[in-house]
Amino acid sequence: MRSLAAVSLAHGSPWRNSPATGWFRDAVAFAAAPAILLAGLAVGVRRRNMLLLLGSGAAIGSALLLLLAHVAFQMPYPADRTGIYFLPLVSLTLIGLASSIPSRPGAIAVYTLAGVLLLQFGAEWNVRKFLVWEYDADTRQIASRLSENAGGKSANSVRVGCTWQLEPALNFYRAKNAWAWMHP
Fold first, then answer.
1. How many CB atoms within 10 Å of residue 103?
2. Residue 158's beta-bridge partner residues?
3. In 3D, which of 145, 127, 129, 126 has the Cα closest to residue 137?
4. C-alpha–C-alpha distance, residues 11 and 125, integer Å
5. Which of 131, 32, 23 lies closest to 90, judged by CA?
6. Which stretches of the chain score pLDDT less than 50?
7. Lower CB density within 10 Å: C or N end of the chain?
């Protein structure tokens, strides 16, 4: 749960290395997200709200299946981006809760939590890199520079030496751009 929250909440914001980030990440992972899902399930059953039942039920059911698979087959828990499907499920449940809580203090609490998370996600907005693959953020520029230096598609065959981390990405650009000049 900590790794899923970390890649969602603490990968690029200005306060990424702040001491409060670890506390906030753990609070969301171990308190807020489970509370949202359990509240969504309870309110969904009580009010027969399908949005809450589907969102919270799918997330809780998935978590239980993952726990069972881990215990029975030693399957690893999802880490980093492999559990990313929990984010929209928790978000849908939070939206459903916000729209179905009749009490003013309860609705204010839910909207406040949603606002805090929205601000955090806004501060994290980054389509250039992913936390786990920060080293790969500049690979497109590296591939472009290689193409310029090799003379483009008309160049002779070129063998590029690189680290094992960059090899898959450079091969992606080689295939995407149909660079016959670059060896796989």
1. 8
2. 182
3. 129
4. 9
5. 32
6. none
7. C
Instruction: Report d(CA 82, CA 66) in Å as an integer.
Output: 12
Residue 97: closest CA among 44, 169, 158, 23: 44
> In whole angstroms, how large is the CA radius of gyration of the chain?
22
Chain segment 105-158, per-residue pLDDT in tens? 888 888 888 888 778 777 777 777 777 777 777 888 999 998 888 765 555 678
pLDDT at position 172 is 93
User: Would you give the distance in Å from CA 120 to the centre of its chain?
Assistant: 13
Question: What is the structure's pLDDT at 116?
Answer: 82
Question: What's the per-residue H, E or C state across the chain?
Answer: CHHHHHHHHCCCCCCCCCHHHHHHHHHHHHHHHHHHHHHHHHHHHHHCCHHHHHHHHHHHHHHHHHHHHHHHHCCCCCCHHHHCCHHHHHHHHHHHHHHHCCCHHHHHHHHHHHHHHHHHHHHHCCCCCCHHHHHHCCHHHHHHHHHHHHCHHHCCCECCCCCCCCHHHHHHHHHHCCCCCECC
